[in-house]
Specification:
The structure is a homodimer of 296-residue chains. Chain A has nine helices and 14 strands. Chain A is of the alpha/beta class and 296 residues long. The two termini of chain A are 27 Å apart. The relative contact order of chain A is 0.14. In chain A, α3 runs antiparallel to α6 (221-239) and α6 crosses α8 (255-267). Chain A has two domains: 7-117, 2-Layer Sandwich (Nucleotidyltransferase, domain 5), CATH 3.30.420; 160-275, 2-keto-3-deoxy-galactonokinase, C-terminal domain (Nucleotidyltransferase, domain 5), CATH 3.30.420. In chain A, the strands form three sheets. Chain A has a six-stranded mixed sheet with strand order 3-2-1-4-7-6, with helices on one face. The first copy, chain A, is globular and about 65 Å long. Chains A and B meet through β12, α3, α5 and α6 of A and β12, α3, α5 and α6 of B.
Chain lengths: 296, 296
Amino acid sequence: MSISPNWIALDWGTTHLRGWAMSAGNTVLAEAHSDRGMGTLTPSEFPAAFAELTRDWTAAPAIACGMVGARQGWIEAAYQAVPCTPLPTSFTKAPTNAASVHIIPGLSQSSPADVMRGEETQIAGFLALNPGWDGVLCMPGTHTKWVQISAGEVVSFQTCMTGDLFAAISGHTVLKHSVVSDDWDDAAFAEALSDTLSRPEKLAARLFALRAEGLLHGLGNATAKARLSGLLIGAELAATKPYWLGQQIGIIGAGPVADAYVKALASQGAPATVADGPRVTLAGLTAAWTILKGQL
Amino acid sequence: MSISPNWIALDWGTTHLRGWAMSAGNTVLAEAHSDRGMGTLTPSEFPAAFAELTRDWTAAPAIACGMVGARQGWIEAAYQAVPCTPLPTSFTKAPTNAASVHIIPGLSQSSPADVMRGEETQIAGFLALNPGWDGVLCMPGTHTKWVQISAGEVVSFQTCMTGDLFAAISGHTVLKHSVVSDDWDDAAFAEALSDTLSRPEKLAARLFALRAEGLLHGLGNATAKARLSGLLIGAELAATKPYWLGQQIGIIGAGPVADAYVKALASQGAPATVADGPRVTLAGLTAAWTILKGQL
């Protein structure tokens, strides 16, 4: 028996594509995944990727968030400039005859220059699940976002490319010999974090020492890896202190990376509550659909 | 007519091998290059690489510096621990029947943990060319060394892997779209350097902005590249301030990277004199030969 969604929710990032067949009451009828992320597609290949993902479902209007709306994506959905609500009042229609796909634009900030795509939908979802919430959202990932929320609007935000840096340093510098491990060392993480937070100007002197301590003193890879993570997240917390100091903090994410941010903030006397990423994404897509359906 | 050296000087690094056929009066009779660096060789392949490099020369004892003496090199030449003179009184003989090759050990520092291999020979060369010199040597490269020299000894040193970081960030993060350029922007370098030096805790907030300014405000790649370089060298100068502040500074190196360090230090009121890298390397190998020849 085929699935007949009332509408389709799409989370279309750089490396992944995830879809949900939704009922008129906004419950999930079916779910589909694909690795046909925006980074693997030319603009003309998006319609086929969408058709393939939804091949077992009858046609329905779709709403999409993420890098699908980037300049190199299906079609550019121009940024909304902050301060603004995370979702706009209208969306960008993708150029396709076979389906009706609407794309949620990202947010931009002129100074300091910053951009996001996809996270605005998670912010909208978090606010839909937590009406009236004010504070700072931390969204850990390759490019972690720190977002100041007030009265339902995104006031300002700051991206730190800590995950991207960690991967580049671990994989493409001399430290590749020292930090590859499946294990972890909580104490080393905490110590390195505290060191960078109290003396951020020493960061550049700490990195090669991870290699030298391995050569001279047998420092293990799990400890070196946790220390590198602590140094980099410490540098991020030092740079974003105006965002998190004395604020109500919500972290959107799950797994070891979100855990590291929770522990890091807790060590600085800044408790944070954690919200599950996919759940808030779907809540945000649902909020966008609520806006869109009145216009169809 | 074949070359008959009195001795052979070798600079054997990770990616290159360079040799000089030397006279009894320590003048250069001939020079040879090869790309058979330590990183491309297993221990058993070193004798053939040496034989190939010197095939046009008659046999003579050789002295070598660099990664050839690392644990993964021809044979490990155990580090000398600082404080010490840059050169030891004896060297490590490579395991080969066909030739007499002696390897100069690197230097180690227990705390903060640090190591060097090859730079100790440049330090010895610099001191041979500048007898009685006291001050700080800056040796820019993939892993820049800052070395405190007093009374002919290396007192302490600090490695910053700034070049390695720059390459990893330029090649393997989202900034690869933003910083690849053959051009340069002096003003952007100076401004970013000054920014990190005065506010090192903000570094993690500056990097993604290079991408965002390109997307939002058309920041050019040459400017973004110079700014990235300024941010990273600024972080290095912030971390190494106890080394260079108020000291006599010598920079060993040449080309754009050495120029960047000269300009960076000058902007902080710290003038530096520059010494040519290959010249000091050969002077250091000559100083090592002077020690070795009395023992053969």
